[in-house]
């Protein structure tokens, strides 16, 4: 069992930011990555649709004998992970915006969160943000259009810069000192965000924490691959044009089109 791959899915290419953290921490683990880019973005979709798409991705990965599933998408986690855990008998790891650590660390008592509509309007997100004491201001911003630009290979475009400027302004007006990235596509924006933000504003995302949690859960289930000296295998599949996903990965990893 322990040599079986980890299954990872996202609405598109963004979950590779999580895959990279998992691979860094657990290089001996093999993986199968699914980018459901044909259905991206999930953010504006209804909860039922997000559950349906997440179930389709999960079933594909389970049919490929994955030992654990990482939902490398904040929108799918906050809308569908309860359903997935109830429905499928396999361990799931999800990703949620790291607003708790940001709220603990802020000195200006103002934090910003950039995420999709589906994440910000989910009850799981509201539950977490309600726990944060009311002397901290949370500036929520839907990153409308950002995922589409990344999926279309327009990461470094003028449109991207203009949207980011627009979305950051209310946060800067509120004097945030932490910006939480609540979508797995957004770590690819970090170089642009650093250019647009004052130096003292720190950016937090949850990729590393997800990798650590993956290790903990694999250990708990006796699923950690302890074989030394065996090369891990990684398969990347997308149901859209493979070139964007390929451009975000080292060329030694092969991306294949798959109609799932
Ligand atoms: N990577 C997904 C997330 O973390 C993007 C959501 C979308 O497709 O809108 O939320």
Task: Quickly list its features.
260 residues, alpha/beta, Rossmann fold, 11 helices, 17% strand, globular, binds D-glutamic acid
Protein architecture, described:
The chain is an alpha/beta fold. The protein folds into two domains: 141 residues, Rossmann fold (3-Layer(aba) Sandwich), CATH 3.40.50.1860; 106 residues, Rossmann fold (3-Layer(aba) Sandwich). The protein has eleven helices and ten strands. The strands form two sheets. Strands 4-3-1-2-9-10 form a six-stranded parallel beta sheet, sandwiched between helices. A four-stranded parallel beta sheet has the order 6-5-7-8, sandwiched between helices. The chain is globular, with a radius of gyration of 18 Å. The model has no long low-confidence stretch (mean pLDDT 96). D-glutamic acid (DGL) binds next to helix 3.
What order do the helices and strands come in, and which of them pair?
Elements: E1 6-10, H1 16-25, E2 31-35, H2 47-63, E3 68-71, H3 74-87, E4 92-93, H4 99-105, E5 110-115, H5 117-120, H6 123-131, E6 137-142, H7 146-151, H8 158-173, E7 178-182, H9 190-196, E8 202-204, H10 207-220, E9 234-238, H11 242-247, E10 255-257
Parallel strand pairs: 1-2, 1-3, 2-9, 3-4, 5-6, 5-7, 7-8, 9-10
Into which percentage range does the β-strand content fall?
Answer: 15-25%
Structural class: alpha/beta
Bound molecule kinds, no repeats: D-glutamic acid
- Strand element count: 10
Helical content (DSSP H or I, runs of 4+): 40-55%
How does the overall form come out from the CA principal axes?
globular
Distance between the termini: 25 Å
Number of domains: 2
Question: H/E order of the elements?
Answer: EHEHEHEHEHHEHHEHEHEHE
What is the level-2 CATH architecture name of the largest domain?
A: 3-Layer(aba) Sandwich
CATH topology of the largest domain, by name, is Rossmann fold
How many alpha or pi helices?
A: 11
């Amino acid at each position: 069992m322990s040599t079986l791959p980890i299954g990872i899915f996202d609405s598109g290419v963004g979950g590779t930011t999580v895959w990279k953290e998992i691979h860094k921490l657990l290089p001996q683990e093999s993986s199968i990555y699914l980018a459901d880019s044909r259905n991206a973005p999930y953010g504006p979709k209804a909860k039922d649709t997000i559950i349906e798409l997440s179930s389709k991705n999960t079933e594909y990965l389970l049919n490929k004998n994955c030992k654990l599933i990482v939902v490398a998408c904040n929108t799918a986690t906050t809308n569908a992970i309860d359903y997935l855990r109830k429905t499928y008998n396999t361990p799931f790891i999800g990703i949620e915006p790291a607003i708790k650590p940001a709220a603990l660390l802020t000195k200006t008592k103002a934090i910003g969160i950039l995420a999709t509509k589906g994440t910000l309007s989910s009850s799981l997100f509201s539950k977490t943000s309600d726990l944060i004491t009311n002397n901290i201001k949370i500036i929520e911003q839907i990153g409308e259009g950002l995922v589409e630009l990344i999926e279309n290979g327009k990461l470094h475009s003028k449109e991207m810069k203009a949207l980011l400027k627009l979305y950051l302004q209310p946060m800067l007006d509120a004097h945030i000192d932490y910006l939480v990235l609540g979508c797995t596509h957004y770590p690819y924006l970090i170089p642009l965000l650093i250019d647009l933000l004052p130096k003292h504003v720190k950016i937090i995302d949850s990729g590393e924490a997800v990798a650590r949690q993956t290790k903990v859960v694999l250990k708990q289930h006796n699923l950690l691959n302890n074989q030394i000296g065996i090369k891990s295998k990684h398969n990347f599949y997308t149901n859209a044009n493979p070139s964007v996903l390929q451009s975000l990965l080292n060329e030694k990893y092969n991306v294949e089109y798959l109609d799932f």
